[in-house]
Amino acid sequence: MNLRFITKNYAVSPQIMPNDIERIAKDGFAGIVCLRPDGEEPGQPSAAELGVAAEKAGLQFALIPVRSGTTPDSHSVNAMRRALLEMSGVDGTGKVLGYCRSGKRAADIFELAQGAREEAAAPTQSYDVVILGGGAAGIATAASLLKRRSDLTIAIVEPSGDHYYQPGWTLVGGGVFSQEQTRRSEVTLIPKEANWIREAVVSFAPESNGVTLSNGAKLHYRALVVALGIKLDWAAIPGLAETLGKNGVTSNYRYDLAPYTWKLVQELQHGTAIFTQPPMPIKCAGAPQKAVYLSCDAWRRRGVDKDIAVEFDVAGPSLFGVAAFVPALMNYIRRYKVDLELKSKLVAVDGPKGIATFERVREGGTETVERKFEMLHVVPPQVAPDVVRESKLAGKDGFVTVDPATLRHVTYDNIFALGDVAGTSNAKTAAAARKQAPVVAHNVVATLAHRAPNAEYDGYGGCPLTVERGKIVLAEFGYGGKLMPSLPKWLLNGEKPTRLAWFLKEKVMPALYWYAMLKGREIMVKPKYKTGG
């Protein structure tokens, strides 16, 4: 091979052969980019053949065919920029090899991709739509927008290189999913037509249609979509942050801690296990009790449940906010002999001593109670992100103030919000964001065309309450607690535990998330309109 390094982390080469792959891997390369179409000359190995060899050697492989004698188009340049981002890793140090017939196309497209990257980091840029947040809500909205208007210029602002399927973390903590099943690379999910800006937003200027990023760059927009999620406030409970992941203290609300939950469940033989739920709002209000049920079911199956005292401390006045689902859930509270403590809020944790302190509201006033534990599963208080809470977009609760139907800001007509950051009364779940994304996409397109937004969100939220391994109470409801089942009751009664709901949770919903929601395929979530649409 005749390698030529353009930078210390990018080299170009003439046509490589399958027997070169092992050496490329030994030389420390992380990935290979093929810039050559198949069949340019006799004896040329196919990209598929080389891709298989690269995969066997542990290398990433990308095919971006550029015809000889032509200038790479914008789609090819954008694909190259994305491949470099993905292959070079979070710290940007992974080595990448690009090849073609002579190496020239591999060098040319690299220079163009670097120029595109520099343009993306320019001090001021303008887009039709700027989307803040590359989580479920942000990517789904971008994909739905591009389905409607493929010519839109869209920027997605997201600092993280990883994307997580957070609804799966409960099942990781219950020993059903592996940790890695819930994580994918962000660059593989963001629509190819959108520009990914890997920074964080630090301030808003809604009067001038602008936002400022952490690198000092300013973005100008015609429409802004805020999908920044919710902040998990671990520091709000004294002693919690420093003991997470040890001393028997865990949480399914973090990717790195969910496996520790399952480890504790497997190892616990006797003692006290305490589960907590903070005041609303929180993301997926059913997740705290899912951890209770899955843990209890695992102990029951192992035959150690009689030696483990289980306590569930809920800061609110009821087990679940929609009364129709409470009877089925209470059956499991009784079945597992859970000590249910309502109006009981965790206020401090002493991990080394194994003591959790609660404030409990009783008829005579508030009392402070210390509880000894062997296992403590904590769900932290949750608030709007700091940058939103301190901005002009926020209401009194700190979340973005929007019309609950159109999801448009009540003051700024070209700003929309969805997902956990929106100041709406619906359940903060991925299912809600899946329903909201097409509504926002339709209304953004209408706004750009100077039409009134007429797509409406009905408050739908889905919460699959995992009550045992193999059965789920599928709670689906909208604004005001109105029941909104997706399937007929004769097929799936959401008010009772069913195996069909478990199948949907384990098999269907992850696929729906990765391959429909994030791709703009609006299965069973087509928007409803005020007048026609």
Automatic annotation (TrEMBL):
The keyword Flavoprotein applies. Residues 3-115 form the Beta-lactamase hydrolase-like protein phosphatase-like domain. Keywords: FAD, Flavoprotein, Oxidoreductase, Quinone, Transit peptide. It comes from the Bacteria. GO terms for biological process: sulfide oxidation, using sulfide:quinone oxidoreductase. It holds the Pfam family Pyr_redox_2. Residues 127-249 form the FAD/NAD(P)-binding domain. Its cofactor is FAD. One of its GO terms (molecular function) is sulfide:quinone oxidoreductase activity. This is Uncharacterized protein.
